[in-house]
Every structure is written in structure tokens, then in C-alpha cells.
Amino acid sequence: MVSTGTAANVLSIAALTPPWGSVLCHSESHLLNDECTAPEFYTSGARFVGIGGADAKMDPAQLQKLVAQKIGDVHSCQPSVISLSQVTEVGSVYSLEEIRAITDVAKVAGLPVHMDGARFANALLALGCTPAEMTWKAGIDILSFGATKNGVMTGEAIVVFKSSFESKGIDSNKVAQELAYRRKRGGHLLSKMRVVSSQMMAYLSNDEWRRNATHANAMMALLQEGLKTVPGVKINTPAQANMLFCTLPLDMMRHLQAEGFGFYTGRWEEGVIRLVTSFQTPKAGVEAFIDSARRFSLLY
Ligand SMILES: *Cc1c(COP(=O)(O)O)cnc(C)c1O
Prior knowledge:
This protein has 300 residues and is α/β, with parallel strands linked by helices. The chain is 44% helix and 15% strand. The protein is built from 13 helices and 9 strands. A 6-stranded mixed beta sheet has the order 2-1-3-4-5-6, sandwiched between helices. Strands 7-8-9 form a 3-stranded antiparallel beta sheet, with helices on one face. Helix 4 (60-67) packs parallel to helix 5 (96-109), helix 11 (208-228) packs parallel to helix 13 and helix 12 crosses helix 13. The protein is globular, with a radius of gyration of 20 Å. The termini are far apart. The relative contact order is 0.12. The model has no long low-confidence stretch (mean pLDDT 97). Pyridoxal-5'-phosphate is lined by residues 4-6, 9, 30, 85, 89, 116, 118, 148-149. One of its GO terms (molecular function) is lyase activity.
């Protein structure tokens, strides 16, 4: 257990790359854009390389090209880890086949694969598969198992998949052992770890985590269906889980803000907003949002 998703990501990756390694991830990834050089700090300066691909999913062909480049060339960093985000940063979800297309490239190159599962439960419910099918059975070696965004106060787990690692000839016990020291060194071994662990136990009991994600995803489906019918709203990436990026006329955006709705703006092109539903989003709130947008579009 660690207390943030950033720690889960960077500790996982630091345990798998030397400082001269390169970590291949999507150019939109949280690692590259939202972790304030923690990745470089925790890995003692490894290079994080952005890979392109539609809907913030890595393109396996581009990945293949980079994985094979300059191997053994002492002048170049050496590909050492591949990291993908499930749900992605734009709200899309890799299908099991798409995950496998990435992990197949990794397998041939002998590289471990990390999954940033900050929204793991939302992706799982969207695919309707088992956790095993979305991780080790699909070639994932190590997982940042997010829980904070789906209901716990603070707490994320790092999960090391023994059989996956061993199929690549990597000793998973060594990885786990190293993680223990790295977690302490990084200041994420809490003296009252039970405060964090008890949240995770509650989260995983009685299907709480599935219930929370089911609700969040259902609210997003409702929101997306509603927004599709509002003139002027453009859906940028169809939401598959609980996050949606869309573009609104600026006046509509200001109108919604003035009515008290909260969402992120300003980090992207003008008019682009990010909408996220959660375990606690009320249905009436979603309906009010759609109504408010529609009222605006009818008036102007
Ligand atoms: C939120 C998030 C994280 C973790 O963020 P913290 O704020 O460090 O907990 C990691 N990856 C993705 C894709 C996220 O959305």
C-alpha cells in the first residue's frame, strides 16, 4: 500500500528500470504530464518517452519501433519498461485485445509492463471481464491498483504478478523486496499503515469497489447520452468509463460555471472541459447539468 497514485506508479517503475533506461508510455500519460518529475526523481533520472496513438492508447506499431531502437548502443538510453493507463487519460478504455497488442511487443523484447490503474475498477466494469483477465492474463506484470478515485479516502496498492514476471525470467520476489525498501526510502511507509490498509479492506469487501464503479460509469453514460442531444456540445472522445472530454461554446461553459457546476477547464484548448462522475455523483445532479446546458443552447 502507498498513499498516492503517483507513488504507486513511480515506485513500481523505479523497481524495474535502471537510471539509463527509457520508460515508454503514451504522450498523454499521467506519468509524463501530471507527476511533476516524480518519475525522473524516483528512477534517478530515467528517460520517459511519449508514444502516440489515438484516444490516448499507445500505438503498438510506434511502440515496436522504439522498443527495437539502439539496443546495446552505449550512447542511448535502453528501453526498460512499458507503461499503459487503464482507464486512459482521455476516458477511453483499452480492450483486452488492445492490451495484448502492447504486451506482445513487450514480451518479444523481454520488457516488463506496468499498468496505471488509477481508475482500474471503472475500466474493469466497462469491459465486464475479471481482474485477472485485464492484468496478468493479458501480460501485465505490475499494477498501480487505484482506490482513492473510487471511494477510499487515500490508498493505492502496488500489485506484483508473480507468474507474469517469471514468464519473462524476472524474479518477482526480488521486485517485491526492492519495492519494500524503495517505499520506505520514498517516505511512503506509514507508521500507521493500518489506517490505509483498513480502507482497502473495506473497499474490497462486499463488492463495494464494483458497486462504486458501476454507479460512476452509469452516471457517465447518462451524462454522455444527454449531452449528445444538446446543440453546440462536441464529444471529443467517447467516454467508456467515468470520464469525458468535450468542447463547449465558451459562453455555455461560463453559464454552467455560473450555475455552480464544477469541472476542469483551461488545461487544454479553449472550450475543452473534463467531466468526471464518481461513486457519489447524484443522478439529479447529472440531469440538472444536462438541463442547464440545454436551456443555454435554446436561449442563444
Ligand atoms: C489520478 C491519477 C493518478 C494518481 O494521481 P495521485 O494524485 O498521485 O493519486 C495516476 N494516474 C492517472 C491516470 C490518474 O488519473
